Amino acid sequence: MTAVRLSPARQTLNVALLAAVTLGGLYYVKWSPYWTKAVFAAGHHALGASILTGKAALPPAASWSAALAYGIAYGKAIWQALVLGLLVGSGVQALLPANAIAKALGGRGFGGALAGGLLAVPGMMCTCCAAPVVAGLRRQQASAGAALAFWLGNSVLNPATLVFIGFVLGWKWTALRLALGLPMVFGLGYLANRLTRPNEAEAARAALADPEASTREGVFGRWLRLLAGMSLRLVPEYALLVLLLGASRAWLFPVIGPEVGNTAGWVLAFAVAGAVFVIPTAGEVPIIQAMLALGVRAGPAGALLMTLPPISLPSMAMLARAFPPRVLAAVGAMVVLFGLAGGALAIALRF
Would you say residue 212 lies in a domain? Predict the structure, then answer.
C-alpha cells in the first residue's frame, strides 16, 4: 500500500485529535470519578467491598460461577478504561507523526525510564488497561525502559490511589507505597533498558517501525484497523485469564484471618499471589482494609500493597510480545521482591 506523507498542518490536527481523545477520556473515566471517590473515602474511610471476597470472609470455592461472578464485577469496574486504553494504544500508532515516540521515549538510559514513568502519572490506569497503550508505545519505538516505567507507573504512582490509601488505610501506608513505588517504577524501567541488548533494540525498531503516519486507507481507516487488530489480539486471552483467576481466588488466598501472620512464608505467599492476581484500579485498598479487619497481619498486607497493582498474569500475557521474555521474567521477580520489602518494612515499622 502506498504511503502518504502528511503535511505539518495535518500532523498537528492528528496530534490534537489524539490529545483530545486521551484527555477527554481520562477526565470522563478517571479524573472526575476519582474526585468523587476521594471525597467519599475522606468522609467514610472506605471505598466499598473487597472485589476479592465481596462481603464474605473468604473467596468463594473454585467454580465456573465464581469465575463468572468475578468476571462480571471486574468487567463493570474496568470496561470503560479498557476501551480508552485500546483507543489510545491504537491512536498512538495511527495519529502520531513518524518517530515522535522514538524521539520522546526512545532513550535507553535512565532518562527514558524517567520520562515514561512521569508520563504515566496522570493516566491512573490499572495494569491491564494500560497494557494496550504500552503495546502501542513499543510499536512506535519507545524503549523497553520507558514503556515499562509507563506501565508500572500508571498503577503504582497513581495519585488518586495514593490519596485513597491515605484516607482508608492511613498515611503511613501511602508513605510506604511511595518509598518503594518510586524505585520500583524508575529502577525497573532502567533495568529493562539494561536487559535489552542493542542488537535487540535495533531489530525491534526495524520490525516495528512504520515509516509514515498514514497510508492511502486514511487516518481513520488505519485507526479502526489497528483498533480492531489490537482488540482481537489482546482482549480474548485477557478475558479468559481474568475468568480463570476469578475461579481460583480460593486457591490463591486460601486463608484470610489471624492465622496469616508476620512470617516470611506468609509474606512471600501473599507477595506472589498479589503479583499473579488481577484487580481494577485501587482495588488493593478495600482488599487490604478487609483483610486487616479480619486479622491479617501487616506484613502480608504490606506485600499486597506493592504487588497487587503493578502487574498481573493477564497483563503480562497481553505484553508478551512487547518485551523480551527475560525482561518480563525479571520484572515479575523484582515485583515480588518489592512485595517482600513492603512486608518487611510494615513489620519493622509496626504498622
Answer: yes
> Residue 215's beta-bridge partner residues?
3
Residues 109-128 have a mean pLDDT of 95
DSSP state of 215: B
Residue 2 lies in a domain: no
- Tell me which residue has cell 512487547: 322
Q: pLDDT digit string (tens) for 215-256? A: 456 788 899 999 999 999 999 999 999 999 999 999 999 999
- Number of folded domains that form the chain: 1
Give percent of the chain with pLDDT exceeding 90.
Answer: 83
At a CB cut-off of 8 Å and minimum separation 6, what does 192 contact? 113, 144, 145, 147, 148, 149, 323, 327, 330, 331
Q: Which residues of 93-132 are buried (b: 16+ CB within 10 A; e: fewer)?
A: bbbbbbbbbbebbbbbebebbbbbbebbeebbbbbbbbbb
Residue 3 lies inside a defined structural domain of this protein: no
Is the pTM higher than 0.90?
yes
Spell out a b/e string for 4-29, using b for 16 or more CB atoms within 10 Å of the CB, else e. eebeeeebeebeebbeebbeebbeeb
- Output the pLDDT for position 109: 87
- Residue that has been written with the C-alpha cell 487516518 in this structure: 219
Other C-beta atoms closer than 10 Å to the C-beta of 221 total 13
The range of the structural domain enclosing residue 273 comes to: 8-348
